[in-house]
Amino acid sequence: MSQTDVADAIGITFQQVQKYERGANRVGASRLQQISEALGVSPFYFFEGAPTVGKKTPAPKEGELSEGAIVSFLGTREGAALVRGFLSIEQKPIRQALLNFVGTFTKAN
What we know:
- The chain is 60% helix and 0% strand.
- The longest helix has 17 residues.
């Protein structure tokens, strides 16, 4: 669908659609609803993959790490090195053995 088609469907100029697309103008909630209807998608479509700041998540159970703690760790050098190393292991049985090995430490505590 072209910018002109979207603009016509929601009653604005294509230049205004360009401003929304470039981020020069803010898209209000009612306008977002109009755009989503014109495109035949849910307004939530525009938020897929967005960070979950403010999203309520259940509290971690005793001995479990929270999602935030895991994400924070992955952002460190150690976390990144661990992920790179694990992903470089091509043999699935070796990856599984490594997970089993690490699991013996978490179950013991």
